[in-house]
Design brief:
241 residues, alpha+beta, four-stranded antiparallel β-sheet, 2 helices, 10 strands, 26% helix, elongated
């Protein structure tokens, strides 16, 4: 009898207090796991977003650099104007008719260049001279070539583009000053300086309260949204100036 009573005593279940303690510990462990998961997810989104931002900005800069450096190139069959002043504008906003409306000091700039080529920036036939106009439509870097009536997207996630033109006043091949398109004078333009404000395409967490300076334009921001942003600047030499 004593053996059976002792056995029943050792086989009894958990008390309510023990169950509650076990549940509390389990919830604390689960909360810790969830915190680690959420932290890793935010970190992944930030890294992924910044990677895409840099990729878009690099693609935009590479296309602009390659084409602008060709401005004025001729093989002896024509004499293309390197930078077309009529369609090279400061602070212009694109409209539905593929024209531009001059806006305030933080709107993006427009540049149009020409060079001898069988195809334009979109790969369309030109007849010998390519004329490419680069501008922003929303957050897309666009190019309108003379081989097609329809512009194409070069890169996405570009929120602002500012451009300065390097003038050589003493014929040494080096820019002595950089000016806006509206202030271009008679001195040869030997370089073009471009600043792009790139942003992530998707929300990446956090709040962007920063302001961004692009060359000599007024700062833009804060945007107070959840996108990441970064300014990229490059100076492009005009080899055929």
């Amino acid at each position: 009898m004593q053996t059976q009573t002792a056995l029943r005593h050792h086989q009894r279940g958990l008390t309510l207090v023990e169950i509650m303690v076990a549940l509390t510990i389990s919830l604390l462990l689960l909360a810790g796991v969830m915190q680690v998961f959420l932290s890793n997810r935010v970190s992944h989104n930030l890294q992924n977003g910044m990677g895409r931002l840099q990729e878009n900005a690099r693609a935009a800069m590479d296309v602009l650099s390659l084409n602008i450096s060709m401005a004025g190139f001729n093989a002896g069959t024509s004499n293309p104007v390197a930078i077309n002043s009529a369609n090279t504008l400061d602070n212009a906003t694109a409209n539905a008719g593929l024209g531009f409306t001059v806006a305030n000091g933080t709107a993006s700039d427009v540049i149009e260049i020409s060079y001898e080529s069988a195809t334009d920036c979109l790969g369309q036939a030109t007849g010998g001279t390519a004329t490419n106009r680069y501008y922003l439509n929303g957050t897309n870097l666009m190019c309108l070539g003379n081989g097609s009536a329809t512009p194409g997207i070069i890169a996405e996630g570009i929120e602002n583009m500012q451009i300065l033109y390097g003038e050589d006043s003493n014929a040494d091949g080096i820019a002595n000053r950089y000016v806006n398109a509206s202030n271009i004078g008679t001195d040869p333009i030997v370089s073009v300086r471009i600043a792009l404000l790139a942003s992530t395409v998707e929300n990446s967490g956090g709040t962007d309260t920063s302001t961004y300076a692009l060359l000599n334009a007024p700062p833009v921001g804060p945007f107070n949204d959840t996108l990441l942003r970064k300014v990229f600047t490059r100076t492009i030499m005009l080899r055929n100036s």
